[in-house]
Amino acid sequence: MPEIAARLQQTEEYYFSRKLREIEQMNRQGEKVINLGIGSPDLPPHPEVIAALCDHAQRPDVHAYQSYRGAPALRQAISGWYRRYYQVDLDPESEVLPLIGSKEGIMHICMTYLAEGDQALIPNPGYPTYRSAVELSGAACLEYQLSEARDWLPDLDELAKKDLSRVKLMWVNYPHMPTGARPGKGFFERLIAFATERDILLCHDNPYSFILNDRPESLLAVSGAREVALELNSLSKSGNMAGWRTGMLAGKAEFINNVLRFKSNMDSGMFLPVQMAAAKALSLGPEWYHSLNETYAARREKAFSLLDHLNCTYDRQQAGMFVWARIPKSYEDGYALSDAVLTSARVFITPGGIFGSMGMPYVRISLCATTETLDRAIDAIRRSNPERQGAGPGKV
Question: Which intervals hold domain Aminotransferase class I/classII large (predicted)?
Fold first, then answer.
């Protein structure tokens, strides 16, 4: 049998892919695991979005290959969405590229700009796909550490002291996943200055800006950002369309065209009815996001209660569709707490260590579960260990 390519030898199967198989096996055996791990929205898109999909899918002229650049209607909708909510003007003809999910875009960017001998800065903790995509491109990862003490923002002054001569791009993500940290006043400006001085391409992954966040921000709104930054965005979270695979890349035309050179050799465009439905989703008013966030806010309170029963501590101001929490000292790391809860209560919560070494003393709970499901999880945890008294109030 042929050996796998060298590019895969350091890249393991995605953690959730393995864990979901384990949970599925437990469910087959009648365990009925409550999964509070992965962030896959359980709510449907807006009814008008579903209607747009159905209406366009019934047309006879929409089933062919599509443009690699995406339908003009979708590009225009993305441009209008950025203008309304982020105060960013994008040329729909040249500065917008629809994607079959923003995760695809992470790989496209790395394959476009990185090669063997290059380095990319990635956050620790951070989304594991950044590391995988960098390594698959043949480049090397250079971690920058994030800590609770610094509000999960990088220390750019310390980072500047490192040898960054081989760094071509830097992955950033705010509101941050997994910690829910917001960028804070002035951070994006400092980040742009840092990248400009060192000729580093900033890649901002921005899918959580509308979730439990009253001030959506785009890195591209900062003066000078167009020259050094690309931004990924998605309807997976803000539109409840994770399975639809609808994402976007925004930035100046030169960057977009470079990424398109790679992308056009990898796919044949998104199904047109999905694109038209995505355009409808992007036209929704602020009442859609307000309703969505009312639901997530109620769920977050339940998640806080669950974490209290595990004696964890957390920041009540975090954004996004997860709750990130520090584990009690009685557990070695987040893996130990996650395994203990899965074994004793049949509730799965994500160990923070899958996001990097700085996440080891943490766990993460997804808000993609109903309040009733979260109540059942709380009850299961309470019954599995009556001694847990919930001595871990959240931090303000």
Answer: 32-381
Query: CA dist 329 to 48, 158, 214, 326, 337, Å?
Result: 49, 29, 33, 9, 10
Hey, what are 235's tokens?
Answer: 């309807």
Rg (CA), the chain: 21
Cβ of 371: how many Cβ atoms within 10 Å? 14
User: What tokens does 213 get?
Assistant: 């966040």
Cα–Cα distances in angstroms (integers) from residue 188 to residues 192, 202, 236, in the given order: 6, 11, 24
Query: What is the dihedral sign for C-alpha 213, 218, 224, 225?
Result: positive
- The pLDDT, as a whole number, for residue 4 is 77
Q: Which of 214, 205, 219 is nearest to 319 (CA)?
A: 214
- Element holding 97 (H helix, E strand): strand 96-99
How large is the greatest C-alpha to C-alpha distance in the chain, in angstroms? 64
Going through 254-392 in order, the beta strands assigned E by DSSP cover: 313-314, 322-326, 347-348, 350-351, 362-366
Phi, psi angle pair for 36, to nearest 5°: -115, 35
Distances (CA, A) of 239 to 81, 104, 210, 268, 366: 13, 18, 10, 24, 17
Residue type, 86: Y
Q: Are 267 and 62 in contact (CB under 8 A)?
A: no
Strand 167-172 and strand 119-124: the pairing is parallel
**How many CA atoms lie less than 13 Å away from 192 in the CB half-sphere?**
19
96-123 tens-digit pLDDT: 999 999 999 999 999 999 999 999 999 9
| pLDDT tens profile 165-189 | 999 999 999 999 999 999 999 999 9
For residue 348, give the DSSP letter: E
Q: Which residues contact 291 (CB under 8 A, 6 or more apart)?
A: none
Q: Which residues pair with 350 in a beta bridge?
A: 364
DSSP 316: T
Return the bridge partners of 35, or none. 348
Domains, the chain, in order of start with CATH, read 6-44+287-384 (3.90.1150.10), 62-283 (3.40.640.10)
More confident residue, 392 or 161: 161
Q: Is 119 helix (H, G, I), strand (E, B) or coil?
A: strand
What are the tokens at 82? 């950025």
What pTM value is reported for the model? 0.92
DSSP for 225-260 reads GGGTEEEEEESTTTTS-GGG--EEEES-HHHHHHHH
